[in-house]
Design goal:
alpha/beta, Rossmann fold, 7-stranded mixed sheet, 6-stranded parallel sheet, 10 helices, 18 strands, globular
């Protein structure tokens, strides 16, 4: 089979021929039809991820065929027995375990779920990592309720878009932020009530006035702008954090935090039952993942370059023939 291998930090992926993996006890070998990229793959190639080793096939997201069934793969491996947090053995498919940028991938059979029939291969492959991350932070951690008002920051990435789609389908009013006006406009076309460009002066005060404040905030950035999110929160609000692309938080006011009774909740990926619940929700509401671009597997480095530009709206997917 052909696969995209990580060879060394700051080096292009290597498209090579390799052996088809063999299933062990409790394992399945899936014939992949599509795989999707995540920023995790970028961070690995840049050396900004733990446990990196060479000669590993990257890729966490994938959908394909197993014993005549169309399946989608949950990339959360070895979560453990406690649903509240992952075990020490937990890791994500694609490093250090060979991932989905290949014709075949070996995974635990328990991590296979039936692909929603209404999704194309590319749409299904776009779902796993970003979808389960959005599901857990929105529903398990922040316990979103119908009728609440939600702010999703940094719209355009996979998790943020799924959070937008899930929250709207659950009966929430959703607003977004971005540094690009066109992404805000695309989010509004998907059902967002409005948005704000966080590079504009006084964006937070303007957004607070227009929206009325938020019950739930979903953030992946952190950084110096995180403190402004507290001012946008209504009393009793929950802030769900699933990433930290802008680094450490400075200027956080504990007075606002305790006086408004705000909860800050960290969240990572999700359990296998959460993955199953997410798929049922997708089918119930016929939600379609947003795909920005599709590349053939052999153009994996071009796909990585497209993702690095950070101007995409939706997932970048690899088609596997």
């Amino acid at each position: 089979m052909k696969a995209l291998f990580f060879k060394a930090i700051n080096q292009p992926l290597s498209f090579e021929k390799t052996l088809i993996p063999k299933a062990g006890v409790g394992e399945a070998v899936v014939h992949l039809r599509a795989a999707a990229l995540n920023y995790r793959d970028i961070w690995i190639t840049q050396g900004q991820y733990a446990g990196i080793r060479p000669d590993v096939i990257l890729g966490s997201d994938g959908a394909g065929e197993y014993k005549g069934k169309e399946v989608i793969i949950n990339p959360s491996l070895n979560w453990g027995a406690n649903p509240h947090f992952q075990s020490k053995e937990y890791h994500i498919l694609g490093m250090p375990t060979d991932g989905t940028f290949a014709a075949f991938v070996k995974v635990p059979r328990a991590n296979l779920h039936l692909k929603p029939a209404f999704l194309t291969w590319e749409q299904a492959a776009a779902l796993p990592l970003a979808g389960v991350t959005a599901w857990r932070v929105l529903f398990t951690r922040c316990r979103l309720k119908r009728g609440e008002r939600v702010l999703v920051t940094g719209i355009g990435g996979g998790v943020a878009l799924f959070a937008l789609q899930f929250a709207i389908a659950a009966g929430a009013e959703v607003w977004v932020t971005s540094s690009a006006d066109f992404k805000i406009n695309k989010a509004i076309a998907l059902g967002a009530a409005g948005g704000a460009n966080y590079t504009s002066e006084g964006w937070d005060k303007d957004l607070k006035q227009r929206s009325g404040g938020f019950d739930v905030v979903i953030d992946s950035a952190g950084g110096d702008g995180f403190g402004l999110l507290l001012g946008l929160c209504l009393p009793g609000a929950r802030i769900g954090v699933y990433g930290g692309t802008r680094g450490k938080v400075n200027g956080l006011s504990p007075q606002i935090l305790f006086w408004k009774q705000i909860s800050i909740l960290g969240s990572t990926m999700g359990t296998n039952p959460e993955f199953g619940a997410m798929l049922k929700f997708m089918e119930k509401h016929q939600l379609t993942p947003v795909v920005d671009a599709v590349f053939p597997l052999e153009q994996g480095n071009e796909a990585m370059g497209h993702l690095r530009k950070k101007d995409q709206f939706g997932k970048v997917v690899l088609r596997i023939d």
